[in-house]
Amino acid sequence: MQEQNFEYVLLVIGTLVVAIIVSTILRKLVSHLINKNATTLKADPTNFYFLKNALPFLIYAAALLFILLKIPGLRNFGAALFAGAGVFAAVLGFASQKAFANIISGVFILIFKPFKVNDWIILGEKWRGWVEEITLRHTVIKDMENQRIIVPNSVISDETIINSHYLEKRICKKITFGISYDSDISRAIDIIISEAQKHPLHIDYRTDEDKAEQHPDIPIRVGDWADSSIPINAYIWAGSPEEANLMKSDLLQSVKKKFEESNIEIPYPHRTVVQKQSGKTI
Q1: Using the 8-state DSSP alphabet, how is residue 183 labeled?
Q2: Treating both helix axes as pointing N-terminal to C-terminal, what angle do 72-83 and 85-95 enclose, rounded to 10 degrees?
Q3: CA 190, 191, 192, 196 torsion: positive or negative?
Q4: CB atoms within 10 A of CB 119
Q5: Domain boundaries, the chain
Q6: Do the beta carbons of residue 170 and residue 238 sit within 8 Å?
Q7: Which residues have C-beta within 8 Å of that of residue 217, sequence separation ≥ 6?
Q8: What is the pLDDT of residues 257-277, one digit of tens each?
């Protein structure tokens, strides 16, 4: 009896060790295949990453089932467990509803693909960055500071997603420049267009027909009559969201220098205080 129990213990330990080894090897193998072949085959790596993260769950489930079938005592327990599967499923479902919601949401992400691995997304009002990994439970987003944001899949399903790589990468970046009411607005617009056209990341996406009809390369619109400034909006095309952000940073710097050279004022908020008793303005 003791020898038999010892054999069962060895069976359990051996099965778990084999499951761990097989899981580790398969995850590394799949990772290697993804990194090596995804770009060459021009295949979407999202499916492979999801499969890689689902493999351990499947392997451990198979190992548990093997142990239940091989040990008579556990086999009876398994039969009783399946006999009461209805009650067990209800209890398990209630206790693990969030976990199952994450898994189901992860499957929906895989099927409907609102985003893929390496896409730049804005998730609600809190998170933005590159999608690095999609697992059964959560999605990993890498932000501009190289930090990893781990968001449960069920939370993602309830959020509005802005995907800058959906269908195409190119983006029309809106950059706003504010000038004072006393400044020469025509001169300011000329400076913005000139600086934008000189930038190496700016792309002219006009068709030959657009050029023949003299549609502007960089549309400029006066946004409003604000409290302290006149906002001028420039709509500039770039090849990707990353390039658009770099271009915006460079243009904010170069346009400011040109504004200073041309005596175009970049205003700051002003307040006029009236003293009611005397009627004088301070």
Answers
A1: S
A2: 80
A3: positive
A4: 20
A5: 1-83, 171-261
A6: yes
A7: 193, 197, 204, 206
A8: 999 999 999 887 767 777 776
Tokens of 129: 């960055």
Domain range 171-261, CATH class: alpha beta
Of 113 and 244, more confident: 244
User: What tokens does 205 get?
Assistant: 């996406």
Three-class secondary structure of residue 202 per DSSP: strand
Beta strands 127-134 and 138-142: pairing type? Answer: antiparallel
Whether the Cβ atoms of residue 105 and residue 111 lie closer than 8 Å to each other: no
Alpha helices by DSSP H, the chain: 2-41, 45-70, 72-83, 85-95, 97-112, 153-157, 185-198, 208-212, 241-261
Query: Lowest-pLDDT range, 15-19, 216-220, 246-250?
Result: 15-19
How many Cβ atoms from other residues are within 10 Å of residue 55's Cβ?
17
Nearest alpha carbon to residue 173 among 246, 115, 106: 246
Cβ atoms of residues 64 and 23 within 8 Å: no
- Asked whether the beta carbons of 174 and 221 are under 8 A apart, the reply is no
Longest dimension (CA), the chain: 105
Long-range contact set of residues 11-18: C-beta below 8 Å, sequence gap at least 24: 11/67, 11/70, 11/71, 12/67, 12/71, 15/63, 15/66, 15/67, 16/63, 18/63
Give the residue carrying structure tokens 């086999």: 75
CB of 177 within 8 A of CB of 191? no
Interstrand relation of 161-163 and 120-123 (parallel, antiparallel or unpaired): antiparallel
Least confident of 15-29, 47-61, 86-100: 86-100
Q: Is the pTM of this model over 0.85?
A: no
Nearest CA to 240 out of 185, 163, 138 is that of 163
Residues 6+ apart with CB under 8 A from 162: 121, 122, 123
